[in-house]
Design a protein that fits this description.
heterodimer; A: 99 residues; 3-stranded mixed β-sheet; 4 helices; 41% helix; B: 744 residues; mainly alpha; 5 helical Cullin repeat like; 5 domains; 3-stranded antiparallel β-sheet; 5% strand
């Protein structure tokens, strides 16, 4: 399996790069990457999400990946900020990606 | 939350819901599954399928999709099933196909499961139905495993048996079995895995049957069978560990033990053990013993060991007869000791593991031997006790202050004491031992140090109570020599030519009857009586309150005498010596004259004189018949090959006849009296602590306490009680006569 970063594609064809390991935080993405489907080549189209949502998703995946290994009691973990107006859409994306 | 500030939330335009109909969506999924089964997913978009499932589930069509999927998988599986069941190939190939199918199916199920991840989360969990992957596995179980189970199981078993027949491991086969068993363990119905419910019982019974048939013990010698069984067991062990989990492995092990060891080996276990014992092959015995950890099995072996030893013990000839009794006793005992020693040495090297025997000795080999020998002795009863005492006597007499021999004799004695512990009639042993010990001590036939040591050893195994009298006897002897020293020192005019060794004995501790009546009246030659009187004086001045009585009949006198042929030292009983000394002053004497001079009863004089004048070895007197009266004189032509001559004590015919019956009767009597004395002492001890006891309970306690010494018979017990009632140590309860009170 290659260690190339994964490209996530949004509705308006904007591309976001994310490291393979960070993408694996989402079981859905993990299944896509590890399977033998078209997505395993490293390009995953998530056409139902707007680019700003996807951007936030990528941000979260990185955030989660970065801090998941750290003890939760640690004070150093910064709050992950979610703009209120995006909350519903992000909720849907999270449900979809199982994160 | 602050509510007066309005927050705007963007509403997604279309909540991911597509307008596609369910049918269209299903087509997409079906298409995907087909591709998965065809192992051709490279062009397929996971995202598309995932989104389809997502949409369907969001549209609350989860149940429909779930069922649809189920039917479709069933369809797929039944198609595949045909390929297996139709296939009438050899067992191994059948297994191979099965494994391939299982592995590919698992893979497919996994992918389908991934695609349906959203459904698992949103539909399956809340509705409590199997997740897609598990549902597929379950379908596999129902559709493939159950429907092909008979084929599969028989194929697997016959393949296993084939390998067993070959007798060599084949990792290709075992790996295959491992996968199949792994599959069986994964798939489970309501409770237990298919492996547990369907396969394991079959495997176990098949194994049992297989090994039951494979070896016929009757055609092989015991040793060969053992080898064969060991080999089979080892192979099966390795084989099982290569493809079974630990649980089933141990189950099969038990089965194997049952079949091979119980079913087959138990018939010959006795022969085998005997063989090992015969060859003194500890390795073999250990091997046999370790074959199974089953307690039943180990007991069987231990029983066999016991029976072997007791058989060899019985083989030792135990002759009972008055003739050569001493010799018989010595040969028998030394052989018994040797057997014990040999088997102990042998069994010591065997590790018996942790097995609970009746006998609680820490050393299992000792425990076994003790069991065997105590059983053996109990068969022989008092004879063995008597013989053992005689054996110790023999060892004692052999022991001189010679270091080399001393070590072996000590070892002999040590081993003897171990066996003495097991004697069933210890009281007989004690009685005989005391008699022989007294003889040894008085005649100075043994080394006192060793006597003391041996008594200590006996004390260790039998307890202080048993040896108290023996210890007093030994103490008397030591004390006597001290007194003698004191006496000698006190004597101003020492009598050089007469060496005098008194033994002051505590009467109750020595196994003698009260003193011989002759001792009161006998008159000894003046030189002797002079010494005795001197000693009496010395003793009573030292111990005023004690009474000293001479027991001449126990003593020995030694006289040096110059005959024509040479100088001899002759040892006599005191009476005979006194008679012989008369001839210092008289040339010739008749029996009557001797009687008058010595006051020894005439009949007894006669027998003493006869023993001195007729026994060839010590014919120191000669008889001459002159004008009707028989006269005796010293036989100056006496000659002997040894310088030391012993005059045997022949009990006078008349006196002995009378006294023998009397003595026999007396012996039983004294023995019983002794028992009653000990018994009443025990009763008093018990009553003193308990205060009030019922007859039955008292009998139980007393029996238990005196068990190492003798068996309490009810009649003796009653006599003991009677005695104590008379002496008012105890009293019957006024209300309930079966109770006794202690009277302080």
């Amino acid at each position: 399996m290659s260690q190339d970063p994964i490209t996530l594609v949004s509705k308006d064809d904007k591309e976001y790069e994310i490291s393979r390991s960070a993408a694996m935080v989402s079981p859905t993405l993990k299944a896509m990457i590890e399977g033998s489907f078209r997505e395993s080549k490293g390009r995953i189209e998530l056409k139902q999400f707007d680019s700003h949502i996807l951007k936030k998703v990528v941000e979260y995946l990185n955030y989660n990946f970065q801090y998941s290994s750290i003890n939760e009691d640690d004070d150093d973990i910064p709050e992950f900020e979610i703009p209120t107006d995006m909350s519903l859409e992000l909720l849907l994306a999270a449900d979809y990606l199982n994160i | 939350m602050i509510t007066n500030k309005k927050i705007k939330i963007d509403v997604p335009e279309k909540l991911g819901l597509s307008e596609k109909s369910f049918e269209q969506s299903w087509e997409i999924i079906k298409h995907a599954i087909d591709h998965i089964y065809g192992d051709d997913t490279a062009e397929l978009s996971f995202e598309q399928v995932y989104r389809t499932v997502y949409t369907i589930v969001l549209n609350r069509k989860g149940l429909v999709l779930y069922n649809k999927l189920k039917t479709y998988i069933i369809q797929k599986l039944s198609l595949l099933r045909e390929t297996i069941c139709k296939n009438s190939a050899r067992d191994y190939e059948m297994l191979e196909t099965m494994v391939r199918l299982w592995e590919t199916q698992c893979n497919c199920f996994k992918i389908i499961g991934d695609l349906m991840m959203y459904m698992d989360k949103v539909y399956c969990k809340p509705n409590r139905c199997l997740e897609v992957y598990d549902m597929c596995l379950d379908l596999f179980r129902v559709e493939i495993l159950h429907k092909c189970s008979s084929f599969l199981i028989s194929a697997l078993i016959s393949d296993i048996e084939e390998i067993r027949n070959l007798g060599s491991l084949d990792s290709k086969h075992t790996n295959l079995w491992k996968v199949i068993i792994g599959m069986m363990e994964t798939l489970h119905g309501n409770r237990d895995s298919f492996f547990l419910t369907d396969f394991e019982p079959v495997l176990i019974s098949a194994t049992e049957e297989y090994y039951d048939k494979i070896i016929d013990i009757k055609l092989l010698t015991p040793i060969d069978s053992l080898e064969k069984i060991k080999q089979l067991k080892q192979f099966e062990d390795v084989l099982d560990s290569s493809f079974l989990n630990a649980d089933s492995h141990s189950k099969l092990k038990t089965v194997l033990e049952n079949v091979l060891i119980w079913g087959k080996l138990s018939d010959i276990i006795e022969d085998l053990t005997y063989e090992a014992m015969e060859l003194l092959d500890e390795k073999l015995l250990q091997e046999i013993y370790d074959l199974s950890s089953e307690e039943k099995y180990r007991f069987a072996i231990i029983e066999a060991i016991k029976s072997y030893i007791s058989k060899s013990a019985i083989k030792i000839p135990l002759k009972d007869g008055s003739r050569k009794k001493g010799q018989n006793a010595i040969t028998w005992s030394s052989e018994v000791v040797n057997l014990f020693r040999k088997q102990h040495l042998f069994l010591k090297s065997i590790n018996f593991g942790s097995i609970q025997l009746n006998n609680l000795a820490a050393d299992k080999s000792i425990a076994i031997l003790e069991d065997v020998f105590s059983m053996y002795f109990s068969k022989e009863e008092s004879l063995s006790s008597e013989y053992f005492s005689t054996y110790v006597d023999y060892c004692m007499k052999r022991a001189k202050d010679n270091d080399v021999e001393m070590v072996t004799i000590k070892q002999d004695l040590l081993d003897s004491t171990r066996l003495i512990k097991l004697l069933s009639k210890k009281d007989t042993f004690e009685k005989t031992y005391r008699k022989q010990l007294s003889r040894r001590l008085l005649q100075q036939r043994s080394v006192v140090e060793i006597e003391k040591w041996t008594v200590q050893m006996i004390k260790k195994v039998l307890g202080a109570f048993f040896t108290s009298k023996l210890e007093i006897m030994l103490r008397d002897v030591s004390l006597s020599s001290e007194i003698l020293q004191g006496f000698k020192d006190s004597m101003t005019n020492s009598i050089e030519y007469l060496s005098f060794v008194p033994q002051v004995l505590t009467r109750i501790s020595w196994p003698f009857q009260s003193s011989n009546p002759i001792d009161e009246i006998v008159s000894l030659p003046p030189r002797m009586s002079q010494v005795l009187a001197g000693f009496e004086g010395y003793y009573s001045s030292r111990y005023k309150e004690r009474v000293l009585k001479w027991a001449h009949h126990l003593s020995v006198i030694e006289i040096g005498c110059q005959f024509n042929t040479g100088y001899y030292e002759i040892s006599f009983s005191v009476y005979a010596g006194a008679i012989f000394l008369l001839f210092e002053d008289y040339e010739e004497l008749t029996l009557k004259e001797i009687y008058e001079l010595t006051h020894i009863p005439e009949e007894y004089v006669k027998s003493l004189v006869i023993s001195m004048s007729t026994v060839p070895r010590c014919k120191i007197l000669k008889k001459s018949s002159n004008s009707g009266s028989t006269k005796f004189s010293v036989n100056y032509f006496f000659s002997s090959s040894n310088r030391k001559v012993k005059v045997p004590v022949i009990a006078g015919p008349v006196l002995s006849h009378k006294s023998e019956n009397l003595a026999n009767h007396n012996l039983v009597d004294t023995y019983e009296n002794e028992i009653i004395m000990v018994l009443s002492a025990t009763i008093v001890r018990v009553m003193k602590t308990e205060g009030r006891l019922s007859h039955q309970r008292l009998l139980e306690i007393v029996t238990k306490q005196t068990l190492p010494l003798f068996d309490v018979t009810p009649s003796i017990f009653k006599r003991g009680i009677q005695l104590l009632l008379e002496k008012e140590y105890i009293q019957r309860d006024a209300d309930d006569t079966s109770y006794y009170h202690y009277l302080s």
